[in-house]
Amino acid sequence: MFMAQPRPDNETGAPEKKPRRSNKSPEPLSENGVEATAPKKRRSTKKSSEAIQDTGTEAESAPKKRRSTKKCPEAVAETGTEVEPTPKRRRAAKKTSEAALEPGTEAEPTTRKRRATKKTLEAELEAGTEAESTPKKRRSTKKPPETVPETGAEGEPTPKKRRVAKKTSEAGVETGTEAEPTPKKRRSTKKTPETVPETGSEPEVTPKPRRRSRKNQSLKGQDGFIATTPVAERLADADIWSNKARKKKPAKKMDTDHLMVADRTRVNIVSYKLCDDIIKYLGPSLDRHRGCDLLDMNPGVGVWSRALHDAVQPRQHIMMEPWAEEYTPFIKEAMGDRQNVKIVPKMGMIWKDLQETLQAHIAPHHTPTSRGQTPERNDSILVTMNVSAWPEKPVYSFPSLSVMVAYQLIRYIRTSSFFQQYGLVRVLLWANNDFKHRILPRSVGERVRANFEAELACEYIHEVAGIDSYDFSYFRRNSRDEWLSYESAARCYRNMKDLGIDMIPGRETRMFKALEEDPQLLKSQKLAGRNPIRVLRPFQDELEKLEQEASPKSSPSARLHSLRTRVAAEGQEGIIVLELLQTLEKLSAMGPSHPEFAPLETEFNNRINGMKRNLREIFYAVRDNYFSFRRNSGPTLLWDRRTYEPLTADPTEFWPNAPVCLLDIQPRAVDPLFHEIGPSSNRSGDVSDILLRTAFGHPANSLPHAMASMWPGFADLVDQCPSFIDPRVGGTRVSGHGELAVRAMSEENWADVVRAWMNWPFRPSYLTLLGRAPDLSGAESQDAEGSGFGGGAMGARNL
To answer: Compositional bias of type Basic and acidic residues: which residue ranges (predicted)?
Structure first.
């Protein structure tokens, strides 16, 4: 049987009491030099009081209790009795225990919690010893106990809260020792230890990084950009370009802040070699503008303005530069002593400023085209402007300044306003490289309402120079058979040879190099529809790299195996799409009167109905591109009508080093059906705008489905649109999955739709149609993929 052992007596002879199981545990006293330690409790968040000794021995600090909500009693030095502390609430914001020491005793630093937000160093005592630094506590918000001033011991400094802006540790002056600086905290904004004046020593201070001069930044790279020409270095030193939203207040009270901020990030052409190559490339087409009036908007440093001025020798060169004060030194250096150059400190994108400039400099030498008269080409006026910016900033409801200006240009042509009122004026437009896909799409997948409006209003839009690169969004939208691209490039190559246009060495595109390496592709032949479908994918470059790195002896990696499997699957899908495309071409040539047409058409539609959705979408994209390219009257897309291949530019030829392109826009006379705009007309042009918004809300739908969505009963007039089934203008005789889609239609197809609407006796009034139309607030949400130019906000803003 187990017998309980008697408890030993202490030095006074009184037996020790059994500790109670409570949250309050008194701390025993020691008078004979024996250290007494209070038992440690679980989850204690409080600090035990320090023992007081009369014998000169060192008192240990009471250990912590684990998450205890109570406070240990404080010891009384003289009586030896214990005082029951008043219990505190849980999570008290402050606790303080005072320790009284006799002279000569040393106080042990209080243990601090983990992750404390501040460290403090304890000053040395009078004995000359160095006090240990107080360790951290975990997420402690409490203050260490203060020292009673009568005992002669030094109290610990009170820690500050987290994220303090300044902290200073002071060393004891009497000891003659040097105070160590307080170690740096994370997220501290300022930490500067003070120097002890009597010791004569200085604390350690972390040196700040040396800031480079602005000139060194421009030479070595400012914001990641590299200045490769002297003009770029000077432009970087001038600090005109800014990525920050700095605003310059206009002279008058006008809502132009958005334009001024966007123009602050303008990209300048700084390479004389690039400009000379472009002028040499465009030489034959620029000869017809000799002696013209040159309207130059946003000339910037004037490098491009000088090259164009020397090429056309204008009668007057009007430069509209809103930042004339900053750019005048660059313009004077570039233009030299040319007497016919005039700098106008106004912004050409503001209608009021543009109208005033035209009235002062252009109107005296030209006659406007009268209303109702068909406009003709006017080569005595040439307009060039730079709207490229990096980074692109939204301007009103438009995603960038380039998109807004492009929308304005198309409206000028259709309404014969501003400089287009003097005839069809050619425009050379510098814009961001991504913008060319908005106004000059390379497949029907990128074609939206704004692209179609540009095709209606322009004879051609050529990309003169740009960055030859593809991004992920291009692969995502461009599901076009690569054989069509080869056919288009071969046609352009033959046109260049016929016109005597030679490619500038060193500025060839990848497609141009591929044609020169394989002369078989240059022959006039049909490649699309005869070879298996090939669609560009973003992973092809990765696959080629992995194939080169793969070893024939070792097994392929998981990624390489996955890509090979995907390529094999797409190869099988390409064969299926090719068979369907050949069947569709056979049906179009056969005609409904052929006895085999009906059963073959039914089989064709049933086969597509049983396909998976992804494969069906691929077929739709290939079909629409095929119809758009195979028209007897020529391709529908302006890209496929190009006369020459674009030159390749490098981002380092611009400041900042941003991807920029140059577009050549030549307007044409708009069909009178689309030119009737305004209250004094029959509104056919306005009706065309509203119906186009409805049609391009779902560009993959067929034209009969689009007509049904325009107004109830309008789809019954499909028979009045003969171009839908005419293969010469891109039509097809196959119903169901072989019908012509909205994104593949031509100008003739859309003219039939508008003409049928205007001849329809049951058509609603213009105001009724306008009330039911999609939102015209300027948002481009009605355009697929968000690639449109925006809408009628320009009329509301009246810039």
So the answer is: 8-17
